[in-house]
Amino acid sequence: MRILITLAVLVAALMAYIRFAPTDTATWHQMPDTAAPGDTTEAGSFLAVRRITAPSDQVLAAAEQRALATPRTTLVAGNVQEGMITFQTRSLFWGFPDHTTVGVKDDHLVIYGRLRFGRSDLGVNKARIESWLETLGPLTEPL
User: Fold this and answer.
1) CATH code that applies to domain 23-139
2) Which residues of 83-112 are buried (b: 16+ CB within 10 A; e: fewer)?
3) Domain residue limits, the chain
4) What is the secondary structure of 30-49 as a DSSP string?
5) C-beta neighbour count of 64 within 10 angstroms
6) pTM of this prediction?
7) What's the rounded Cα separation, in Å, for the pair 99 and 16?
8) Cβ atoms of 51 and 140 closer than 8 Å
9) Over the stretch 50-72, which tens digit does the pLDDT of each residue have?
């Protein structure tokens, strides 16, 4: 019985740490170097780059609106005027945070999602970003 109680306390402590660990804005509010439109999948992250067909502030405003309509998503840093916005989306049960940065570089929309804890996001960042891109489709060129 002691082992089960100890295990339950450890799991609760881990869940609390994951949910309440502070977010270092400087670490997450950054854009990756990008070259050309396309998608890049790496362990725990997904990067989508699309050429925009509308003014950058209009594209970013639409991206912000779409991101904030995503369940359990909050604004971490940035705004449309800055040209870059970072969001945090948490998983339903454990509350694992994923960070997604949206920005415009030259005439490209860049959306970069990555996990904070662990090594694999099980494709969650890719699915979320592709969902956002479907909404933003009229403002970007298809691949």
Assistant:
1) 3.30.310.80
2) ebbbbbbbeeeeebbbbbbbbbeeebbbbb
3) 23-139
4) -PPP--SSEEEEETTEEEEE
5) 17
6) 0.90
7) 18
8) yes
9) 999 999 999 999 999 999 999 99
